[in-house]
Amino acid sequence: MSWKNIKLIFTKELVGTIRDKRTIIAMIIIPLIFYPLLFAGIGYFSKVGSIKSEEATSKIMIYGAEFAPQLVKHLQDYEKIEVLTIEDDSPAKLQNGDIQAVLMVPPDFKYKIEREEPIKLILKYDTTEAKSRIAQKRVNQIIEEYKSEIILQRLSRLDLKEEFLTPLILQEENIATAEKMTGSFLALLLPYLIIILIFAGAMHTAVDITAGEKERGTIATLLVSQISRLEIVLGKCFAVMLISFTSMVLGLLGLALAFLSGASIAGGIEGVNFGISINTIFLLFLVLFPLVGLASAVLVMVGIFARNIREASSYITPIYMLTVLLGIVSVSQGMELTGNMFLVPVLNSSFVFKELLMGKIYWDHILTTFSANIIIAGIALFGATRLFNKEEVLFRS
Amino acid sequence: MTNYNLKLTVQKKGLKFKMIQVEGLTKVFHDKKRGKVVAVNNLKFNCQKGQIFGLLGPNGAGKTTTLRILATMILPTKGKVKVNGFDVVKEPREVRKQIGFLSSETGLYDRFTPRETVMFFGRINGMEDKVIKKRTAEIFHSLDMEGFQDVRVNKLSTGMKQKLSIARSIIHNPPVLILDEPTVGLDIITARTVIEYVKNFRDQGKCIIYSTHIMQEAEKLCDMIAIIHQGNLIAQGTLTELKKNSSFNDLEEIFFELINQGEKLE
């Protein structure tokens, strides 16, 4: 086995892949340009929409305004509220969106206030309409303020201080570190994304340089050269690994950009502090590489086995779906892996990713996952080379 | 069927000139539907330096199988095959150094230019870059490829591609060329170019084994012709010898005569 020969095949596959427009579109344009623009667009329009609703004046219809003149005055004093007089068709207007909320004041309002009995006010609004939700929020706020006012009046009448109402104060302190908070946020999504991006990134190239070579009849020209079949398989597999890894990184970067651009335009990001330590990143990579190798080796093996690109794609679809399924299983809350389960490829990596992102380092899990995936990748490589030596596989038509 | 006797004159020029030696070559495939298939049965022939050896036969006769065995792509079930003295089973890597392989099915990498393609094939055949560059310049000049040497293959015409395929197969200057129906699917002008180069290579002293199902091509091109039918070698000799042993004067007629006799024997 010569590294020089492996490098020749590796370089050839890499150059061929990079020159393929589809690769550039899938690897760079879609994640790094399309997604951020799309999310920025969504963010922009949702912001424009929310600004419009925030600025608009809420039209509120009041039934029984005459029973609670002070409350009505409070509402009228608020500059973005317009109080309307009673009309019979107000429910219809509420549905049309001509008015944003209807407030109903009972006739015994004044009586109950004086007798210090609770008064039931009814606010009708439409939760599917942004403007109506804002009106509801505004009315709610004003009612709360008015309520506090009444309470304070009552307290002072009884010669009581405001503190009378707060005998206990519970101060909550979150001890989760920034790393752990980021982790739990990322741990939900990231393992799944990483796995999908690795497989999706590897698929096209893996099929193109194996089944594609068979289809185009270039494979025979490699077989009669000085390069051994193991060198061909390794060169191809390494090229797929690099492409897969790069598209995973670019994919994540693109999604991060998309998230940031979308969120910052829509109104800033709160509570996410991206703190991941160098150690964690190193361990993530340690688990990542065997997984990339495993995906590449398996896909290359399937590609070599298939007669042509179409056949390869139909073999790969179920593998991809299985991967997606394992990804989904692993991100579902409350699922725990035990002992031997860390021998299951994909699932094991996903769990270790999750643990690492939560700041938990279990060496037995990391080592089991690492070795299991390396061994399975090795078996797939061995299988791919065996297939490459089988004339009935190479030359069936 | 192989007992069918034509008086074959083995050109006794000494063993060292026998670039390809095939003896008792048999290849059996296992097919799911058809079971055991004898693709090639007990073939025996030799090809010499400076000679175009034609394998003539209809589709499915076993030509491609024979040439794939010669090119070390598949293994023989039985028999001995040597290329320039190297055994295809025991020394495949050495054999690959001796051969240039081209068939109607071999393709090219679309996203590379002719210059890059030839560079790649030179390298994977263990050549130094300096030597490859020098030889590329010579080959491109003689094949008149300089005008499109830096254009990507997917932009080339069929004729240009075929020239590149030839260039690719001879970059490492192999003494033996294995050509499996190299003119199939080509227009007559391109086919003629290919044939001219094949003649050229013979004149340079290379040993060429050339399979075809086109009688006229074999008649025009080949110094020796082996006719195979259903995996069996049914006649072998120069065109003159084949004619001498037949009641016909035309290769096509001779061919059908031989096939008919072969089937009667069966």
Number of helices of chain A: 15
CATH-derived topology of chain B: Rossmann fold
Radius of gyration of chain B: 19 Å
The biggest sheet of chain B amounts to: 6 strands, mixed
Cα shape of chain A: elongated
One letter per element, helices H and strands E, the order of chain A comes to HHEHEHEHEHHHHHHHHHH
| CATH homologous superfamily identity of chain B | P-loop containing nucleotide triphosphate hydrolases
What are the segments of chain A in which pLDDT stays under 50 over at least 5 consecutive residues?
A: none
Helix content of chain A: 55-70%
* Largest interface chains and counts: A-B, 24 and 31 residues
The counted number of beta strands of chain A is: 4
CATH class of chain B: Alpha Beta
The number of distinct structural domains of chain B comes to: 1
Helix/strand order of chain B, N-terminal first:
EEEHEEHEHHHEHEHEEHH
Tally of contiguous helical segments of chain B: 9
Tell me the strand percentage band of chain A: under 5%
Shape label of chain B? globular
Mean pLDDT of chain B: 87
